[in-house]
Amino acid sequence: MVTTWVPDVLGDGYQQLTIPLGKDPDGEGEVEATLVRYQPTEITGTHAVLYVHGFTDYFFQQHLAEHFAEQGYSFFALDLRKCGRALRPGQTPHFVTDLRMYDFELNEALRLVREQISGGHVLLVAHSTGGLILPLWLDRLERRHGGSAGAGVAGVILNSPWFDLHGPAVLRSAGTSAAIDALGRVSSKRPVPLQRLDTYGSSLHVDANGEWEYDLDWKPLTGFPITFGWLRAIRRGHARLHQGLDVGVPSLILRSKQTVRAPSYHPTVDEADAILDVDQIARWAGCLGNRTTIVPIEGARHDVFLSTAKPLADAFHEVDLWLAWLHAHHLTDTETRETGASA
C-alpha cells in the first residue's frame, strides 16, 4: 500500500511517505496523498498530532510541528490528494466532487500514525477547509463500532474552520445552493467567476509583506481557481454540518476576533481573518457535538498559526492550556472506567 519514508523538502528532521490511492474517481488518473513526519529524534511517546491543511495550502508550518514536539507529541501532517506534495501533472489542484473521498487517506494516515506510536492516541489538527473535512470524517467514524475514541482519536483542534460561505446572505440562499448543485453536477470543472485577490497571500509570504516562506506553486498568492464541482462538495459538507454532527471527542476551535475585507494588501489584514467570516464560525461551532471550546484570538490572521508574534504566542498558550485539560480529562475518564469495572 505504501512506499518508504524519504527526506522531505522541509529538510532536517522531516520525512515523507507516499500513500497510493488508486484511480481517481473524478477521472484524473492515479492519485496519492503524502504523509509528512517531524522526527528530530527517535519516536518514544504514545501521543501524536495529525495535521490537515486547507484549500490552496499544504503543510509547511515547521514552527507548529516543533511546538507540538516540545509538548511531547510526535508530529505528522497529511497533504491530501492533488494538494501540495501530492499534486501530480495534469491534475486540478484540490479538486474533488465529494468530500467523502478524503476518508481513504484520512483512515490510512490515522492507521500509519498509530502504528508509529504503538497504538497510542492521536490529536487531530486542521485548518480552514480541513476544519470542515475532518469533522465530517469524524462523524462517520463515530458511527462505527468503538467510535472516534475507539479508533485512537483523543481530540481535535480546528484553526479557523470553514463552516459556511462568507459574504451576503443571498450567497447562502436556497436558490444559490440549487444553482451551485446543478452546475457542479454537469460542469464540475468549470471555474466559479470570482476575482482572485492576493490580499491574504501578500500578508503571509516573505517576498511580499509577510514573514513566512512556502512554495508558491503549491500555495499561490492569489489562490487556486475554485470549480463548481468542488464548491458543490463544500456546500453539501456545510449542509451536513449544519444538521449537527457528533465528532465523538472534545474540540478546541481557534479563530480571529474579527473579519476584514480588503481588495489589496493593507496592514489591517495582518490582524484579522481576511478569508472567512468569523461570525459564521461562531454560529456553527456548536454543530460538532461533544464538548467544544471556542477561543477568539485578538489580532489573529485566517491561519491563526501564521499570525504575527503576539497573537501566535496567545494561540499557542491557549493550545497548551487545552492540552493540559484534555490530558486530565482522559485521565479522569480512564479512572472512572476502571472504578466502574472493579465495582
Description:
Residues 48-257 form the Serine aminopeptidase S33 domain. The chain is an alpha/beta fold. It has a single domain (6-166, 230-342), classed as Rossmann fold (3-Layer(aba) Sandwich). Helix content is 34%, strand content 17%. The protein has nine helices and nine strands. The chain has helices spanning 62-70, 103-116, 130-142, 147-150, 174-186, 199-204, 228-242, 278-284, 309-342; strands at residues 6-7, 14-23, 30-38, 47-52, 74-79, 121-127, 153-159, 251-256, 292-297. A nine-stranded mixed beta sheet has the order 1-2-3-5-4-6-7-8-9, sandwiched between helices. A hairpin with a 6-residue loop joins β1 (6-7) and β2. α3 (130-142) packs across α7 and α5 packs across α7 (228-242). The longest helix is centred in the last third of the chain and has 34 residues, at 309-342. It is globular, with a radius of gyration of 19 Å. It starts with 5 loop residues before the first strand and ends with a helix. The relative contact order is 0.12. The model is unreliable at 338-343 (pLDDT under 50).
List the helices and strands and how they pair.
Layout: E1 6-7, E2 14-23, E3 30-38, E4 47-52, H1 62-70, E5 74-79, H2 103-116, E6 121-127, H3 130-142, H4 147-150, E7 153-159, H5 174-186, H6 199-204, H7 228-242, E8 251-256, H8 278-284, E9 292-297, H9 309-342
Parallel strand pairs: 4-5, 4-6, 6-7, 7-8, 8-9
Antiparallel strand pairs: 1-2, 2-3, 3-5
